[in-house]
Amino acid sequence: MGRFAPGVSGNPGGRPRKRFTQALSRVISDADLEQIAAKVREMALAGSHHHLAFLADRLEGRAAMASEDREVIAAANGAGVDPLLGLYGITH
User: DSSP strand E in the chain: where?
Assistant: First the structure.
């Protein structure tokens, strides 16, 4: 017989939460979360690309990066070029 019985989870409690996440959930209320979410939305609508990307990642999930993009970014990092510029072939 295998290590676990069929149909029984080997990790019934799930992945343990990290200590910082546990501390945050103790001190941030639901009302705080609503205010934070509203502020992130406000900043995204005001044109903050950082906040817009954050919302997109949270709502849609992070986009998978093609392996060729990883190679370009690695090469750009090694040459001291901004990785985003390296994706578009801009080297200075």
Answer: none
Segment (H or E) for 30: helix 30-45
Residue 31: name the closest of 23, 20, 39, 43 by CA: 39
User: Does the structure show a pLDDT above 80 at 47?
Assistant: yes
Residue 42's pLDDT band, with cuts at 50, 70 and 90, is very high
The dihedral through the CA atoms of 72, 76, 77, 78 has a sign that is positive
Q: Residues 17, 34, 59, 70: what is their CA dihedral angle, to the nearest 10 degrees?
A: -60
The total number of structural domains that make up the chain: 2
Question: Considering the domain boundaries, does residue 10 fall inside one?
Answer: no
